[in-house]
Amino acid sequence: MADFVQLWVYLSSTPLFGLTATITTYVLAQAVYERLRHTPVANPVLWSVVIIGSVLWLTRTPYPTYFAGAQFVHVMLGPAVVALAWPLYQRAAEVRRRGRALVVAALVGGTAAAGSAVGLAWLLGLPPEVVKSLAPKSVTAPVAMGIAEQLGGVPALAAVFAVLTGLVGALSARYLFTALRVPEWPVRGFALGTASHGIGAARALQVHADAGAYAGLALSLQVLLASILIPLVGRLVP
Amino acid sequence: MNELRGLALLLLLQAIGESLAHALSLPFPGPVIGLILLLPLLRWQGVRESVSAVAEFLLAHLSLLFVPVGVGVITHLDIVAAHGAALLLVIVMSTWIGMATTALLLRWLLRHEANDG
Predict the structure, then answer these.
(1) Do the Cβ atoms of A113 and A169 come closer than 8 Å?
(2) End-to-end Cα spacing for chain B
(3) Among A81, A185, A230, B36, whose CB has the most other CB atoms within 10 angstroms?
(4) Does ipTM come in above 0.90?
(5) What are phi and psi of A36, to 5 degrees?
(6) Mean pLDDT over each residue of chain B, to the nearest integer
């Protein structure tokens, strides 16, 4: 037992721990998700976060110790955002043909998501730095962190809100679109990508190829629009 | 080799984006500038071959990349404990409002355009 404790203390202090825990847990969560035929509540991001978070909390492992290894996964978010140019390029013809409708929907939908978040948070009396961290919640986490920093919010908090927003969308989209009677896959995918960025897009991609493609498009558009507009609005409204 | 070349290009463009954002104090995150810079480069076949290989891998496993930040919620358990119910309400409602607005508006716009054309 003492040996095991020593081994755990050693392993949990090397970067290998965070990296292995992140990828292994996700691979297992993904396998369960596939086994359960992509049922929304089995979302692999949700369960990976819950499982790793619980292990860290129970073993009193500090987050920076975990992140020393997990950062090797985290750092890939930057190139992944640059890579969003690819789905955008692939759908260039579609974007040109339906461009106006898509940009208008992305702009109005993104504004509705950000505006309602800030408005509700303000009405409920949340602290200003929390309100500012909520504004970019519909943008993919790495970009949301950058925007929150510009606004004077807390980047780490913005990232957590963005991940939660992604999960809410991925978990509830099916039911919301059924209730709204929207059966068109491109429209469903685009709306999910607009409101719930990468996690929503990942979900859309698993459900239907058209939904996935439009979600990727919406995600790229939202990154562009939000990172230009939210900081501008933030400067006008002190 | 294509994958590695593509990854090198993505990282390089992100680095250029970060440098430009920093040097010119632009209000956009570096990777977004990298995305904009990559778009015109995709005209070249060689760039497309390298980028598509790595982009498809990265984007197929995009949700994995959110796990480290997501776990970060444990460092903010105090804020979650203090404002948990309000935060949950805000996040759920605004996500639904955003999704519903986008879906209903886009459907209306597409039908409108179809009728026009």
Answers:
(1) no
(2) 46
(3) A81
(4) no
(5) -90, 20
(6) 89
Inter-chain touch B105–A116, beta carbons under 8 Å:
no
Q: What is the mean pLDDT of residues B20-31?
A: 84
Q: Which residues of A45-78 are buried (b: 16+ CB within 10 A; e: fewer)?
A: bbbbbebbbeebeeeebebebbbbbbbebbebbb
Q: What is the pLDDT of residues A144-171, one digit of tens each?
A: 888 888 888 888 888 889 888 999 999 9
pLDDT tens digits for range A13-52: 788 999 999 999 999 999 999 999 888 888 898 899 999 9
Task: Map out the domains of chain A as residue ranges.
Answer: 2-75, 80-236
C-alpha to C-alpha distance for B66 and A4, rounded to whole angstroms: 31
- Tokens at residue A227, please? 């990172």
Global pTM value: 0.84
- Single-letter amino acid code for the residue at B112: H
Residue B5 identity (one-letter amino acid): R
Give which of A214, A185, A216 is closest to A199, Cα–Cα: A216
Instruction: Report chain A's C-alpha Rg in angstroms.
Output: 19
Chain B, 25-44: which have a CB under 8 Å from a chain A CB?
27-32, 34-36, 38-39, 42
Q: Would you call B30 and A146 a contact, using CB atoms and an 8 Å cutoff?
A: yes
Interface probe, candidates B7, B14, B26, B32, chain A, greatest A C-beta count within 10 A: B32
Q: What are phi and psi of A12, to 5 degrees?
A: -70, -10
Between helix B77-116 and helix A185-207 the angle, nearest 10°, is 130
Q: How far is Cα A104 from Cα A81, in angstroms, rounded to an integer?
A: 22
Distance from CA of A160 to the nearest CA of B (A): 5
Phi-psi region of A139 (alpha: psi -120 to 50; beta: other; left: phi over 0): beta
